[in-house]
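Possible regression after last week's pipeline update?

I re-ran a chain I had predicted before the update to compare outputs. Posting the input and the new output here so someone can diff against the archived version. Not blocking, just want to make sure nothing changed silently.
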Amino acid sequence: MKEQVNHRMARTRAHTRSGLWVIFSLSVAIYSASADTILLKSGETVKGQITSESDLSVTISTETSTGKMDKTIAKSEIVGMTLSSPAENKPEAGESPFEESSSKSDEKPDEAGLPDAEGFYGVPNGVIDDPDGYVNLRKDKSTDSRIVAKVVKDEPFEFECGQNETWCKVKLASGVIGWMHYSRIKWYYTEKDLPKGPEDSGEEIDQQTREQGVNYYEVTRAAAHGDKKALKTFFSVGLDAAALETHITAIVPDVIHLVGDDKFAEFLREQSPVFREDISRYWDSGTFAPFDPKEYFQRHFPKSAKLVFPDYQQLLRDYTDFIKRNPKDSEAYRRRGNAEYEHEDWDRAIADFTRAIEVDPNRGVAYWNRGWAHAKKKEYRAAIKDMQKASQLQPNEPAYQHDMEEIKALQTTEPETR
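New output (post-update):
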């Protein structure tokens, strides 16, 4: 079964590593991949390789007529990018990634790690999720197409589905192949899919979690059983680069599915709104791929989704209730301010960012947030003053200087309101 675990992880990671356009948000990490093309809000594209990254910006090395040049770009300006695997992950010239497996002529294709003629690997990875308890498998990609089989609840099958595709190819244990609408498919996991050691999850996870005093494999297994302390540790562990990628694309979905909606929602209700908001922080980078993570989670984990993706008014209520119990939590004020900012309620956002600064005057990000809220109101002098303070507190964060220059440019083209 270890081969199946590794194979499932490899297939999951493949969704995020080969020429995929990633829709970008401020919280997305770049990992160890290189960016072929970065798309900016202005419509401009920048080609090159990412050489460094901070919480708020990335530095990309680009080729110019005079040689290589480093360019710092604020993450707030990035709307998308194409990612490709790092060079060290590519096979050497003349080397086949399946060379060892293909030499075992006495093995079946799925046993050797290769797909069959239809693209299936022989590892069940899906079940249906439908209130009727069954889904019809169709001959073609249409609800008018002939029914070739009826798939019932808890019947594992294998499926292949591209990103943004409406219909997925399904192969049943009986060998019958047909098409099923993507909305009826839920990923299928068992405890045997949980990593048992670095041979399953990679050396990076093993090393980084041990440095934090965490046995990743024991915590993951306990979390999958619904242990609340283990779940808190599992979703709080600090990872970066390839370790973070494997964690969010291959292990997080496994744990969530094994815990189930009821237990996961019960756990989430006991957590702070900051923690709940951070749960989905990196999901756009491949969690539940090839499905849209928010849509997938809302469909198959509806109770938990109301806590992870609350509507605006509920999010405000959650933070307000939390702040009443924790009036000295600077981050809670800042997060509520972010919600108000996204809702274009600039005055309330400024008030919350100001309160966050009063509680903790040494956090540059709160000044940066307030600076942009002032800029949205065309209060450019106040905005620039906040950006200067943010840069003073965190001089190694290039995004603050970048955004200050952008606001200064706005100041020259649009009138100050006061």
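Follow-up from reviewer: compared with the archived run. Residues 126-187 form a domain with the SH3 type barrels. fold (CATH 2.30.30.40). Marking as no regression found.
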